[in-house]
Amino acid sequence: MEEDYKYKIIIKKQDNDVANTIFHKVKNIVTPNKRWLVNNLKMFTYNHLRLPLYNKKDIELIIYEYGIQNVLQYFILNKKKYNEIMELIESEEEKLIYGVATEIIFEYFEFRIITN
User: Fold this and answer.
1) Three-state SS for 19?
2) Which end of the chain is more exposed for a tag (fewer CB within 10 A), N or C?
């Protein structure tokens, strides 16, 4: 039965300090609602990147390490992804780098089903 399943966040690879920091804070969250988990992790990631802990150079470095060409291809030219980012940042274009960085960091996570 579906209600016997719960979801938890796992980290796919541990080569990014930002993703590791976020995972450390959310690793114990378990819920039967995957959509809630996905949406809240994405918002948590975005808000985490907006903390004074990171300056604009840190965010630019996340994008640079991912690759400018990849960012353009996967997040800017892809209308669906671009619209998701714009919704996340409430269409404030000056926050676009934070939205893109959120998507990059979000790729480090996946959601696993665990049984009760």
Assistant:
1) helix
2) N
pLDDT digits (tens, 9 = 90+) for 25-64: 999 999 999 999 999 999 999 999 999 999 999 999 999 9
pLDDT the model gives residue 3: 61
Q: Where are the alpha helices (DSSP H) in 27-109?
A: 34-49, 56-66, 68-71, 79-88, 96-106
N residues, the chain: 116
- Dist. CA 65–CA 76, nearest whole Å: 16
* Total domain count, the chain: 1
- Domain limits at 50? 2-115
Q: In angstroms, what CA-CA distances link 24 with 17, 34, 37, 41, 57?
A: 10, 19, 15, 12, 23
